[in-house]
Amino acid sequence: MSVRSAPSAPMIPFDSPAMIDLRYVKKLIEMLDGSTVDSIEISSDKGMKLRISKSSQQRVAAMTVAPQMAAPVAMTPVLPAGGSERPAGEGVAAAPKAEAPKVALLEIKSPMVGTYYSAPEPGAKPYVNVGDRISKGQIVCIIEAMKIMNELESEFDGVVREVNVTDSNAVEYGQVLYRLDPTG
């Protein structure tokens, strides 16, 4: 009767350039491509290092496309059909009765599945609160994914109107975390 021992804890699959497992590297590249993380650096206890980075062109393209998609389409008031046939004074009097057009709120969504943290450490002040004015590039929270703490930066300028997640809760890819008023 033979007894097999359980496999030891997973190790980084390389200790020298000759020991690099290309399947592992390919898997890391696929994971990086499917996330918002810009780069990964891994090192073994033997001094071997592996660094994988996304190109800066991909990051710039992603940053310029996202705000355009979230921008409100029609924010100017539209005249009702036949508005030109009314006397000039009538249109002016009707304006105060009409409800002011609602400003479309911009959404900051989770770029990955993970655990949401509103502050840099337990007990610390949250990065942002409702009513705070934030600017593009400002850190708004941390999403922990696969034991990696990922700081999430705002893609927009605006005032925080909604915080839709509570601290230490799981978030899904694409889940709305914050809503911002761009007009503040």
Automatic annotation (TrEMBL):
GO biological process annotation, one example: fatty acid biosynthetic process
Keywords: Biotin, Fatty acid biosynthesis, Fatty acid metabolism, Lipid biosynthesis, Lipid metabolism
Coiled coil: none
Matches recorded under Pfam families: Biotin_lipoyl
Keyword Secreted assigned: no
Span of domain Lipoyl-binding: 105-181
GO molecular function: acetyl-CoA carboxylase activity
Pathway(s): Lipid metabolism; fatty acid biosynthesis
UniProt keyword Lipid metabolism, yes or no: yes
GO cellular component, one term: acetyl-CoA carboxylase complex
InterPro entries in the record: AcCoA_biotinCC, Biotin_Carboxyl_Carrier/Decarb, Biotin_lipoyl, Single_hybrid_motif
Functional summary from the UniProt entry: This protein is a component of the acetyl coenzyme A carboxylase complex; first, biotin carboxylase catalyzes the carboxylation of the carrier protein and then the transcarboxylase transfers the carboxyl group to form malonyl-CoA.
Protein name: Biotin carboxyl carrier protein of acetyl-CoA carboxylase
